[in-house]
From TrEMBL:
Upper classification of the organism: Bacteria, Bacillati, Bacillota, Bacilli, Lactobacillales
Source species: Aerococcus viridans
Protein name in UniProt: ABC transporter substrate-binding protein
Gene3D superfamilies named in the record: Periplasmic binding protein-like II (3.40.190.10)
Family, as annotated: Belongs to the NlpA lipoprotein family.
InterPro entries xref list: Lipoprotein_NlpA (IPR004872)
Cited PANTHER family: D-METHIONINE-BINDING LIPOPROTEIN METQ, METHIONINE-BINDING LIPOPROTEIN METQ
Keywords assigned: Lipoprotein, Membrane, Palmitate, Signal
Membrane topology listed for this record: Lipid-anchor
PROSITE patterns documented for this protein: PROKAR_LIPOPROTEIN (PS51257)
A GO CC term attached to the entry: membrane
SUPFAM superfamilies: Periplasmic binding protein-like II
Residues of the signal peptide: 1-18
Length: 273
C-alpha cells in the first residue's frame, strides 16, 4: 500500500511539474497576428529580436488583412496586433464586440497625396479628380488633408475624426472625389489627377516616397498602436513590448531606417521619444 501511495505521489508531482512547465512555456511565447504592411515587418525585424533577447519566443501568425488579424487576437488565437490605429481599434471593439486595449502607440507611416495625371498641387482646377480609399477612415484623412490645402472647407461643428464627404461645405477648387478600394489606387493612379494613399499601401505597392506632393499631419486617432485584449494587459510581456517601443535603442533603429530610405517615412510618437 505504501509503495502504491509513493508511486501515486510521484505521479502527482510529475503532473504538477508538467503543468507548471506548460504554463511557463505559454507565458514565454508571444503570438503576433500580422497582416501585410510595414508595421508587422517593423515588429518582426526590430521588436521580436529584442524580445527574444529577453527570453521570449515570438510566433508570427500571418493573415491577409487586418480584420482577420484582429479577430484572431479577439478569439485568443494570437496575443497582439500592430497594424491598426486608434480609430480602427474603436471600430473593431464595436463591430466585433471585442475588448481591445492599447499597449503603446508605435511609429506610423502617414498618408500622402501622390501625383496622378498632375504632379503639382498648384495646378488643381475644376473637374480634377482625387482617388481616396472607400473606408470611413481613409475618407476622413483625405478630407482633412484637402482642407489643410485649402481645397475644401468642412463643417467646423463636426469632430475631425468623424468627418465624411457630406460635411463638405465648400469645394473651392471643384475637385471630384473618386472612391475605390485602397489597394486598387496605386495601379489606377494614372486614371485620376491625384491620389490619397495610406502609408502601408504605398509601402506594399513600392511607390516612390520622394514623389509625395504633401504628407498628412496625423491626428491622434490615426497613429498606429500595438493592441491586445483587456485580460492580457497585466502580463509581463505587455510592459516589455511597451518598453522596447519607447527605448532609445529602438527609436534609433527607426531613424536609421528613415535615413536609409532618404526621407521621413516613419513618424515616432512624441511620448516614445
Amino acid at each position: 500500500m505504501k509503495k502504491y501511495l509513493r508511486y501515486l505521489g510521484l505521479a502527482f508531482i510529475s503532473l504538477v511539474l508538467a503543468a507548471c512547465g506548460q504554463n511557463t512555456e505559454d507565458a514565454q511565447t508571444i503570438k503576433v497576428a500580422t497582416s501585410p504592411g510595414p508595421y508587422s515587418i517593423l515588429f518582426m525585424e526590430e521588436v521580436a529580436p529584442r524580445l527574444e533577447e529577453q527570453g521570449y519566443t515570438v510566433e508570427e501568425i500571418q493573415f491577409s488583412e487586418l480584420r482577420q488579424a484582429m479577430i484572431a487576437v479577439d478569439e485568443g488565437e494570437a496575443d497582439i496586433n500592430v497594424d491598426g490605429n486608434r480609430l480602427n481599434t474603436e471600430s473593431y471593439n464595436d463591430t466585433l464586440d471585442a475588448n481591445f486595449e492599447q499597449i503603446v502607440r508605435i511609429p506610423t507611416v502617414p498618408a500622402a497625396i501622390y501625383p496622378g495625371q498632375k504632379d503639382r498641387l498648384e495646378d488643381v482646377e475644376e473637374g480634377d479628380t482625387i482617388a481616396i480609399g472607400n473606408g470611413t477612415v481613409s475618407m476622413m484623412r483625405g478630407l482633412l488633408l484637402m482642407q489643410d490645402l485649402g481645397w475644401i472647407t468642412l463643417d467646423p461643428n463636426v469632430e475631425p475624426a468623424k468627418v465624411t464627404a457630406d460635411d463638405i461645405q465648400k469645394n473651392h477648387v471643384g475637385i471630384e472625389i473618386v472612391e475605390m478600394q485602397g489597394a486598387a489606387i496605386p495601379p489606377a493612379i494614372q486614371d485620376v489627377s491625384y491620389a490619397l494613399v495610406a502609408g502601408s499601401i504605398a509601402y506594399d505597392a513600392g511607390m516612390d516616397l520622394e514623389s509625395r506632393l504633401v504628407t498628412e499631419e496625423p491626428i491622434d486617432g490615426l497613429l498606429l498602436e500595438a493592441i491586445t485584449t483587456a485580460d492580457k494587459m497585466d502580463q509581463a510581456w505587455v510592459e516589455d513590448i511597451k518598453a522596447i517601443y519607447q527605448s532609445e535603442d529602438f527609436n534609433q533603429a527607426v531613424m536609421d531606417r528613415n535615413e536609409e530610405i532618404g526621407t521621413e517615412f516613419w513618424i515616432i510618437p512624441e511620448e516614445n521619444q
